Amino acid sequence: MKSITANNSTIHFNESCYISLNEHVKANNFSKIFILVDENTHAHCLPLLLENLETTSSIEIIEIESGEMNKTIDTCVGVWNTLSDYNGDRKSLLINVGGGVITDLGGFVASTFKRGIAYINVPTSLLAMVDASVGGKTGVDLGHLKNQIGVISTPNLVLIDTSFLKTLPQNQMRSGLAEMLKHGLISNEMYWNKFKDMSDLSFDDLDDLIYESILIKKQVVDIDPLEVNLRKTLNFGHTLGHAIESYFLSNPDKPDLLHGEAIAIGIVLVSYISTQLVGLPIETTNDIKNVFRNYYGVVPIEKADYAAILQLLKYDKKNEHGHINFVLLEAIGRPKINCLVDDAIILDAFKFYKT
Ligand code: NAD
Q1: Do residues 201 and 87 both lie within one domain?
Q2: Count of domains forming the chain
Q3: Which of 64, 80, 99, 146 is the most buried (most CB within 10 A)?
Q4: pLDDT by residue (tens digit) across 246-292?
Q5: Are residues 238 and 324 in the same domain?
Q6: What's the rounded Cα separation, in Å, for the pair 131 and 170?
Q7: Structural domain of 246
Q8: Same domain, yes or no: 254 and 145
C-alpha cells in the first residue's frame, strides 16, 4: 500500500512500515528510544515491534495502565518523570504503541518534554488507525472533560500494521468502525454504502477500507489543518457523542461506553436533527439509524440523563462565544458546519434514537 503524507508526517502501511522505521531510526541516530505501551499492547503488540526494530540505541519500555480514565495529566507526569529518570534528552525518541489513549497521551508527552522530542505513533486499535493517526491532535482529559488539554503536533512517522488488529477485542473494533462510518457520511456515499453489508468482509477488504478512511481524513486535514472550517466536519456526531461519553464515564450506574460507541449514538442523533433543520431526507436518516442499530444496538439513555448530557455540551471544545456548534448533514457527503440547535430538538432526537 502506498504511503500517505499528511501534515508533514508520513503514514506507512504493513510491509513497508518497519523498513521506514529502521531507515528513520538509523538516519536520526537517537540517543535513546523509549516505547510507551499499556498492559495490553505490551503483551500483544510490543513483541512484533521489537522483533522488527533494528537499532543500537538503548531501549526503555514505559508501561501505563490502559483506559480512558488514565488519559490524564497525572499519567503524563509519571511518563515525564520516567523519561527524566532514564536520562531522556532532546535527541531521544518516543514510540507510542497502542490505541488512541496511548497515541494522544504519548504525543502530548513527547511534544512537551524538553519543549518537544521526536515521536512515532504505532496505532494498534482500529480507531487509532483510522482517526487518531492523522491530524496531529494530542492531549489528555481534564477530569471528566474530554481532550481539554493538548497541543497540535505531528509525529515523525505513523506506522500502520493491520495485523495488530487480530488481538483487538470485538467491541473495540466496533468502536473504530464508527469513525469509518462517519467518514463515509460526511464525504463519500460510495464509501458509506460499503458498510451496509459487511457479511463477506475479508482481511484484505478491511485493509482497503482502513486505507480509504485515512485518505478521507487526510484530505480534510490537509485543506484545513487548524479546523477553521472544513475540518469541523470531522466532528459530525462528536458534539453529542463526547457529551454522552463524558456522562457515561463519570456515572458509575451507567455501563462502560467506548468512544466510538458514544459517537455512534451522536451520529444517529444529529442525523435526526439534520432532517429537522437542514433537509436531510427522513429516509436517509432512517437508513443511517438502521445501519448503526445493526452494529451497535440501542444504548439505554433515560429521560433522567438528558439534562446532564445537555449541560456537558456547554463544555465542548468547539463552542465559540458561548454557542454550541453542531455539524449537520444536508445529504450524504454534504455536511454543514456551525449550526445552532435548540435543546428541544435535541430532546426529540433522543426520542427518535430510542424508537
Ligand atoms: P484505547 O487506546 O483505550 O484502546 C482500546 C483498548 O484496546 C485498550 O484497552 C488497549 O489496551 C486495547 N488495545 C489496543 N490495541 C490493541 C491490540 N492490538 N490488541 C489488543 N488490545 C489492544 O482506545 P481507542 O479506542 O484506541 O482510542 C480512544 C482515544 O482516542 C480517545 O481518548 C479519543 O479521544 C482518542 N482519539 C483521538 C483522535 C485524534 O485525532 N488524536 C481521534 C479520535 C480519537
Answers
A1: no
A2: 2
A3: 99
A4: 899 889 999 889 999 999 999 999 999 999 999 999 999 999 999 99
A5: yes
A6: 18
A7: 171-354
A8: no
Q: What is the arithmetic mean of pLDDT over 166-183?
A: 96
Residues 26 and 153 in one domain: yes
pLDDT given at position 317: 63
Q: Compute the distance from residue 23 Cα to the ligand 1 centre, in Å.
A: 27
Last residue of a domain, one of 117, 141, 168: 168
* Same domain, residue pair 24 and 101: yes
d(CA 268, CA 256): 19
Q: Which of 168, 200, 218 is the endpoint of a domain?
A: 168
Retrieve residue 169's grid coordinates. Answer: 477485542
Q: Grid coordinates standing for 111?
A: 511534544
What residues does 229 pair with on adjacent strands?
A: none
Q: What is the CATH number of the domain that holds 121?
A: 3.40.50.1970
At which residue does the C-alpha cell 473504530 appear?
A: 176
Interatomic CA distance for residues 247 and 218, integer angstroms = 30
The helix/strand/coil state of 5 is: strand
Q: pTM above 0.90?
A: yes
- Same domain for 67 and 82, yes or no, is yes
Core vs surface per residue 312-339: b (16+ CB within 10 A) or e: bbebbbbeeeeebbbbbbeebebbbbeb
User: Helices 303-313 and 238-250: crossing angle, nearest 10°?
Assistant: 120
Distances (CA, A) of 94 to 107, 125, 164, 176, 342: 8, 19, 19, 24, 45
Kindly tell me the burial class for residue 234, based on how many C-beta atoms sit within 10 Å of its own C-beta (0-12, 13-18, 19 or more).
buried
In this predicted structure, the answer to whether residue 323 has a pLDDT above a threshold of 90 is: no
According to DSSP, the β-strands at 326-331 and 334-339 are antiparallel
User: Per DSSP, which regions of the chain are E strands?
Assistant: 4-6, 9-13, 32-38, 58-64, 92-98, 118-123, 140-142, 145-149, 157-160, 326-331, 334-339
In this structure, the residues whose C-beta lies within 6 A of any atom of ligand 1 are: 38, 40-41, 44-45, 66-68, 71, 98-102, 104, 124-125, 127-128, 131-132, 135, 137, 146-147, 164, 167-168, 172, 175, 259
Which atom from ligand 1 is nearest to the alpha carbon of 126?
26
